């Protein structure tokens, strides 16, 4: 791997990690309503992005509050009559491809490469055609009902739960509280409690609990923490009699392993920390 490619991977990973601080990433969203760019990221011509670029652009859209799915280079925006607003920060995405090169044996071989380029969300650009801007979808009251026993279990942990109409789920480290959208806006009760289990696992990492945030205090700590929270969600749901969404969780975990540059040991470390978190949650709940 060349130094240039290594630096590009580091930059992409850093973008994702920076965005995680904004809360629950948008690809885990079993509720209705949106204030963030949760649609599949699209190029200027409507072609969807693929692979790691989806993770990057979804994360940044969530962190910045972008509602448009479209991403454009500075030149593409200009060609469409748009103008990037002064001071707006671009996102780096990756173009993967191959080049043909003659090897020492005189044979042609294909060499893979990764090249970074910069794009802006349509929300950062003035003057684009109307179809490039999306209107956030309002939350819907689907009539999903709470489970009193599950509510009692989560409340017994001592967590502080803040429920508002904001369509976003996250653990606020500074306030030490969990924010959730109303349960009636979720498609299913299992989706609500699975999301709450994910955020409650984050809650265990605080300094006065398991101090996980301190022990894993490096530039990849946030990506690692997402692995812990999602595995903790699956473990906790299983023990509470809820069926975890293994397909979604598997894709979610795979994404964060990619962000950690596919560290094969990360999944084992995260599983160990997730087990400690679930044990802690049960101990807290049983004491009340």
Automatic annotation (TrEMBL):
Q: Which Pfam families match?
A: ArdcN, MPTase-PolyVal
Q: What superkingdom does the record give?
A: Bacteria
Which intervals hold domain N-terminal? 7-120
Output one GO MF annotation.
single-stranded DNA binding
**Domain Polyvalent protein metallopeptidase: start-end pairs:** 149-272
InterPro entries in the record: Antirestriction_ArdC (IPR017113), ArdC_N (IPR013610), MPTase-PolyVal (IPR041459)
Q: What is this protein called?
A: Antirestriction protein
The scientific name of the source species is Roseibaca calidilacus
Higher taxonomy: Bacteria, Pseudomonadati, Pseudomonadota, Alphaproteobacteria, Rhodobacterales
